[in-house]
Write a structure and sequence with these properties.
By secondary structure, the chain is of the alpha+beta class. Helix content is 35%, strand content 34%. It is built from four helices and 13 strands.
Length: 326
């Protein structure tokens, strides 16, 4: 009998060496079983498809009179293959929907903890659940004196264009809504008004039912799936503005990319543009003579309810100091 510390040490070392190896093997087996379990449904679908294909092959090789077995095997094979296809489609749809609901529920719980549930519900309905986005949003501005309006008023002509792109994996139908400042309506002068509207290559005239009696243009349009193209939208309108005064263009969709151009303005009037609430786009003056006649920001993202404000005011003249007589 050998009770030396050396023998005891060697025995413990061997046990410690075997234990990690055993744990490693157990972990590997456990991970493999988890992967198999997570893909079990697809394995079953694959087996069903193979069985169905085998039944069809067997039915083609059976030639007896009457051909009852042939029809039985063929029908069973077709039924099994159809069942496999339906199961695969439903599993894909159910998994995507479950993940979406899980993500929404998680975000809802987090944001509700930060803020309130009613605010989160409004955020979902106004922003997250929007099916489309406006890209390359462009507004061209022209301000003119016009005999149809009263003193202290002017006519603002705007050309608005953008691309309407889908945010979903499949095509969707959405409403395009444009509004005039109808509270500035001039009787018997057809002001304000839309002079031209074009959606996806289709031109709309003023007699089209998409134009309402309260200065609205509402049109349903089918937007392609994400990354499958876009629908071009353009409109020309004439608005009535007070001078000095402001005109506010309110966005009702998510918008990516902004360009504001000044086409024409009387020499004695100055235009300042503000995009609220962006601090970098506050009271930016547009000038025709100096080449600073546009604002173009490609990476900006605007949300529904944000405002493009056009401020018109008299141009400040340089004060000439009289000569000093000595």
């Amino acid at each position: 009998m050998n009770d030396s510390p050396k023998s005891f040490s060697t025995s413990v070392t061997n046990d410690e060496t075997e234990l990690p190896e055993l744990l490693t093997a157990t972990t590997a087996v456990s991970e493999a079983l988890k992967k198999i379990a997570s893909h079990m449904l697809w394995i079953i679908i694959g087996i069903l498809a193979l069985v169905g294909a085998a039944m069809l092959i067997m039915s083609s090789g059976i030639h007896v009179e009457p051909p009852i077995l042939h029809h039985v095997f063929r029908d069973i094979g077709i039924a099994i293959i159809v069942a496999a296809i339906i199961t695969a489609v439903y599993e894909t749809y159910a998994r995507i929907r479950f993940e979406l609901l899980l993500m929404t529920s998680f975000l809802g719980a987090v944001i509700a903890d930060w803020s309130r549930q009613d605010i989160w519900n409004a955020l979902k309905s106004q922003i997250i659940e929007k099916p489309v986005v406006r890209e390359n949003f462009r507004v061209a501005v022209r301000l003119e004196h016009d005999s149809r309006v009263a003193q202290g008023q002017m006519v603002l002509k705007m050309q608005v264009s953008y691309n309407l792109r889908g945010l979903r994996s499949r095509s969707t139908t959405t409403k395009i809504e444009h509004f005039l400042d109808w509270h500035f309506k001039i009787k018997d002068q057809n002001l304000p008004c839309f002079s031209n509207v074009k959606v996806g290559g289709k031109k709309f005239t003023s007699t089209d039912p998409c134009f309402t009696t309260k200065g609205e243009f509402i049109c349903s349009v089918n937007v392609p799936a994400k990354d499958r193209g876009a629908v071009s939208v353009s409109s020309s309108r004439e608005e009535v503005v007070y001078f000095p005064g402001t005109h506010c263009f309110v966005l009702n969709e998510i918008t990516k990319g902004l360009e504001i151009c000044l086409n024409d303005i009387p020499e004695d009037i100055t235009l300042f543009v503000t995009v609220r609430p962006h601090p970098d786009l506050k009271y930016r003056e547009l000038k025709l003579t100096s080449g600073e006649d546009q604002i173009k920001v490609d990476d900006i993202v605007l949300f529904p309810g944000q405002i493009i404000e056009l401020l018109f005011q008299p141009k400040q003249q340089d004060v000439v100091q009289p000569d000093t007589v000595v």
